[in-house]
UniProtKB/TrEMBL annotation:
Keywords in alphabetical order: Cell projection, Cilium, Flagellum
InterPro entries per record: FliN-like_C, FliN_T3SS_HrcQb, SpoA-like_sf
Sequence similarity: Belongs to the FliN/MopA/SpaO family.
Domain Flagellar motor switch protein FliN-like C-terminal stretches: 12-78
Native species: Paracoccus angustae
Protein's name according to its UniProt entry: FliM/FliN family flagellar motor C-terminal domain-containing protein
Domain of life: Bacteria
Alphabetized Pfam families for the sequence: FliMN_C
Length: 85
């Protein structure tokens, strides 16, 4: 892998990272009927956390948190992989 670092400047390569909370399936009529304070039920529980993806590939799991700054930005804490040593 060190040989590859000489050929490719990986510090300059950017990828888009997406955080998925969950999914649901709705009809167009159901979506158009949504109003403030309505709730969309997703396909996973809060305990399952979020998926961290590059493209369609899940690369890690995480949990939502805040950064504690004055802006209170939304953040994702990376969780350990179960069974990893």
């Amino acid at each position: 892998m060190d040989a590859l670092n000489h050929l490719i400047d990986t510090d300059a390569i950017q990828v888009e990272v997406t955080v998925r909370l969950g999914r649901t399936r709705q009809t167009v009529a159901q979506l158009s009927a949504l109003r403030p304070d309505d709730i969309l039920l997703l396909d996973q529980s809060i305990d399952e956390g979020v998926e961290i993806c590059v493209g369609d590939k899940v690369i890690a799991r995480g949990e939502l948190t805040a950064d504690g700054s004055a802006e209170d930005r939304l953040c994702v804490r990376i969780l350990p992989v179960p069974g990893a040593a």
